[in-house]
Amino acid sequence: MLSGTCIVLISLLASFSLAKAYLNLTLPGQHPNPDEVVQEVHRRVNASIVRRQMLQVTKRDQFSSCLTGNPIDDCWKCDPDWPSNRQRLADCAIGFGQYALGGKGGEYYIVTDSSDDDAVNPKPGTLRYAVIQPEPLWIVFPSNMLIKLSQELIFNSYKTLDGRGANVHITGGGCITLQYISNVIIHNVHIHHCVQSGNTNVRSSPTHYGYRTKSDGDGISIFGSKDIWVDHCSLSHCKDGLIDAVMGSTGITISNNYFSNHNEVMLLGHSDDYVPDTGMQVTISFNHFGENLVQRMPRCRRGYIHVVNNDFTAWEMYAIGGSGNPTINSQGNRYTAPTNRNAKEVTKRVDTEEGSWKGWNWRSEGDIMVNGAFFVASGAGVEIKYEKAYSVEPKSAVLIDQLIMHAGALGVGGRDNNLGKWNTGPNEGFDSGPDYEDEMSGSSMNMPMQPLSSTSILFTFLISFSCCFCILSLTCI
């Protein structure tokens, strides 16, 4: 009887602890003071702009021509030897995703095979084989490549997808799934024409594969994950969202991307009733929301969303929407409304009466409104700066063209063709191969692979990586 009573008490205490944690709403990786992160973003942007302006006047820095005022790009692109120091990129993120390590400190993995024939037993050399490995990897591409996925590409933690110097397109089933993992950087790839897949087995690690139900067809699906950075990608033409982050995901930065040709662009939050998403924190910066977009740039449910220094070219329905009382902090953006006189409003409170949303914290500071665009703010003291959303004065909105000039994938096939080809410092690099366009993803053609030199095959090295594990002990006294 005593033993049974103890079990019941332990169960009740455990249930109470779980309920308390649930109500606390603190997610792993959630920053305790999001306003500090917002202030740091503006500090870094303003510092980069000032440095660029000073160097333009003095002309004493031989690298001043590369400076844009964009703190992410200025962090690595101004290094003429960046191909030999690729992992420096991991130190360049800003905002809530700034702690994403990716594969920093790990081996370089060279993708030599563009095929994706077997989602359960991927071949060494393929992208799928790389992303499921348990150790940190910095994944690179020696030549232009079209990877047509057979199923969702399920990542493991501590991976960087680095497409700099090559024209890399990812299409097909899935596409990219980040589920219950952390520390992923996705940089400089084209992601488009992603379709639904599933109802089959897919491997997620070297020791596990399992049955996957039908996927949504997102470009990038972030599910219960933290410390994620998506930078300099071009996304378009997917079945569902281009980027969706749900189920308690947090610590995310989405920067320098080019979005186009899509309906529901970005969803942040699972549902109005999913309380853990209150801890979601996302920075959306230096992106170009381009042609033929309809809505959800983003559409937010709960959480703290910082939208800073983006260019919204146009939309058909609205730019930023939400429900479930999210905090939306819009600063230093340019909103260009469509010609439709009924679609000039930037914002939309989705399926919510004004009596409910008028207390939500939605703020616009330093934004530029073009062609009749207008932002409907809300929250206490709507006529003054609202302390929960206020950071520093966003003075950089007038420099939007400069800050987003290289949004999207860089290099061959990108919007900025000045980025060098892939090389490994002492090695000579690789031929560029053919350029690809987004529309080519619909064809059945196989993209040719360039042969790897022996020096390139030998280019892998180990850098010591250490990690600490905290073990939580529960003791019943």
Provide a short characterization of the protein structure.
The protein is of the alpha/beta class and 477 residues long. It has helices at 2-24, 34-58, 71-76, 127-131, 354-357, 400-403, 454-458, and strands spanning 107-110, 137-140, 145-149, 153-154, 159-162, 168-173, 176-179, 182-187, 190-195, 200-205, 208-212, 220-223, 226-231, 234-236, 243-246, 250-255, 258-260, 262-264, 266-268, 281-285, 288-289, 293-295, 299-301, 304-308, 311-312, 320-323, 327-331, 334-336, 347-349, 362-365, 368-370. 15% of the residues lie in helices and 26% in strands.
In percent, how helical is the residue content?
10-25%
Using DSSP, what is the number of strands? 31
Q: What's the overall geometry?
A: globular
* Straight-line distance between termini: 18 Å
Largest sheet: 10 strands, parallel
Widest beta sheet: strand line-up? 1-2-5-8-13-16-20-24-27-30
* Percent range for β-strand residues: 25-35%
Alpha plus pi helix count: 7
The overall average pLDDT, rounded, is 80
Please state the structural category.
alpha/beta
Low-confidence regions: 1-24, 383-393, 415-477
- What is the oligomer described by this structure? single chain
What is Rg?
23 Å
